[in-house]
Amino acid sequence: MDTASSVVKRAGGWLIALAVSFIVLGMIAIVEPAIAGLALTIWIGWLLIFGGVIHLIGALRGGGLGRALWQLLLAVIYLVGGYYFLSHPLLALSTLTLLLAGILFAEFVLEIVAFVQNADEAGRFWRLVNAVVTLLLGAMIWAQWPSSSVWAIGTIVGVNLIMTGFSRLMLGMMARRAGSLAGA
């Protein structure tokens, strides 16, 4: 049977592994920001296409006329959006860049909430650091949009991934240390 300290240490190990993955992905995105941005745009285009197909299947499965019509409308929106992303990746990248600014602002707010709510969490300072960097990245995108769309999304996603990885690395190390102290 697992002791509490071994569970905490194992969770810390998973956090560290996750952190390293975030850091490596962030470094790749920074080295090739245009490719990372376009790859993200194309990936999202395909996700929208697949989502449209799923909504279309939902419309054909029935559930009443109203439900089927809503599913059909959603299918059309997803399919048109996916087609737009795949056929105009640079324009879609510009749209995604503006959306990313909004997402980073939302992440900033959520990180601040997590920081405040976890007042007793060891290593919570790194959440605050991540929140501030995230806010700065969002503001940088917003201020320079649309001119920097081609390189900004890959670079900023890369920096955000590295900062998220670093903050999770610190939390994982704290968890492992806490598990070692509890097991001693």
Folded structure, characterized:
There is one protein chain. With about 180 residues, the protein is mainly α. The chain has one domain. It has 6 helices and no strands. Helix 4 (about 90-115) runs antiparallel to helix 5 (about 125-145). The mean pLDDT is about 90.
What key attributes describe this structure?
184 residues; mainly alpha
Summarize, please.
This protein has helices at residues 4-31, 33-60, 65-87, 89-117, 125-144, 149-183. It has 184 residues and is mainly alpha-helical.
For the residues shown, what is the average pLDDT? Answer: 89
Strand content: under 5%
How far apart the termini lie comes to 17 Å
Number of domains: 1
Please give the largest β-sheet. none
**SSE pattern:** HHHHHH
- Low-pLDDT stretches are none
